[in-house]
Amino acid sequence: MILGFDTFSVKRFGIICLAKNSAYWFIKAYLILYLISPALNAFVENASRKELGLTLILFYLYQTSYGFIIPGGETFFSSGYSPVSFIGLYLLARYVRRYRPHWSTFLPHTDLAIYLLPALLYTAIGLLIPYFAHDSIIYELVFRFWKHYIYYANPLVVIGALYLLLFFSKLNFTSRFVNLCGASCFAVYLLHTHDSICGQYYLPACRYLHDHFPFPTSRLPCADYCLPRGRFLCGYRHRPGTHRRVEAPLAAD
Fold first, then answer.
1. Can you give the pTM of this predicted structure?
2. Contact 165, 235 (CB under 8 A)
3. Which CA distances in Å does 198 have to 3, 152, 226?
4. pLDDT per residue as tens digits for the range 50-93
5. CB 3.0-4.6 Å disulfide test: which of 7, 30, 111, 204 passes with 167?
6. pLDDT score of 237
């Protein structure tokens, strides 16, 4: 509105943010998770470690089968972009925080390496896609696998996100710049996915780079799109003006 891209009205705000803008699925899913978190917390507090662990195993077996291996097998998973998947992530974070299993106590550089393995695999596949352009069948198969790989229901994505969280949770430093980035990420998300910005400027810019520049260069906007989301993966943040580590509210005890 300040830049003149759009005009404000209560009706348009509701349509864009709450109704017809699928890019804001995260907000709606997070609100549902927030509303039912007291019930989830009560379950975690009263269930034994074995019961919670078995629940997580069965949940991720089901989600992997019907939300990733067979996309659309269960529409309520929506490939991981749904409140149901958020519930699984929340319970997983609570389990790790409450019981500190041995696989969550690696050194920070090990956590980072576990995160980087699936991330680099995805990047490598994306960079190799143009080399299969001469064979339409192979190209289509590789491209579909590449798109399928980034689903939130992909167990490798879940594992990577968990170990990135664990990596940051074991660091201890102060930085006003990090605080500034963390505080601004939600605003960046709202702005970046707004139809007046994403549809009219961001996506056309990506298409232009894809059509006029080498393949790796055309993927640079993806970094701009993904990096602001890192705030939601961090296990902690620092309050401006303080020097003590503050745990993030995600799955807090």
1. 0.72
2. yes
3. 15, 21, 14
4. 999 999 999 999 999 888 887 666 677 888 888 999 999 999 99
5. 111
6. 37
Q: List Cβ neighbours of 112 (8 Å cut-off, separation of 6 or more).
A: 163, 164, 167
| Residue 86 token pair | 């958020």
Neighbouring residues of 98: CB distance < 8 A, sequence distance ≥ 6? 44, 253
Please state the separation of Cα 104 from the chain's center in Å: 19
Q: How far does the chain reach from its first CA to its final CA, in angstroms?
A: 40
Residues sharing a CB contact under 8 Å with residue 62, sequence separation 6 or more, in sequence order: none
CA distance 242 to 234: 18
Amino acid identity of 64?
T
Q: Residues with Cβ < 8 Å from 160, sequence gap 6 or more? A: 114, 115, 117, 118, 119
C-alpha 124/C-alpha 42 separation (Å) is 43
What pLDDT digit, counting tens, does each position of 223-251 carry? 444 433 333 333 333 333 443 343 333 44
Q: Report whether 222 contacts 215 (CB < 8 A).
A: no
Unique residue bearing structure tokens 């590789």 = 142
Q: Which of 34-48, 60-74, 123-137 has the highest mean pLDDT?
A: 34-48
For residues 41 and 176, give the distance between their C-alpha atoms in angstroms, rounded to a whole number. Answer: 32
Rounded CA separation 190/203 (Å): 16
Amino acid occupying residue 22: S
> Do residues 69 and 149 make contact, with C-beta atoms less than 8 angstroms apart?
no
Report in angstroms the alpha-carbon separations of 72 from 66, 95, 156, 218: 7, 28, 19, 30
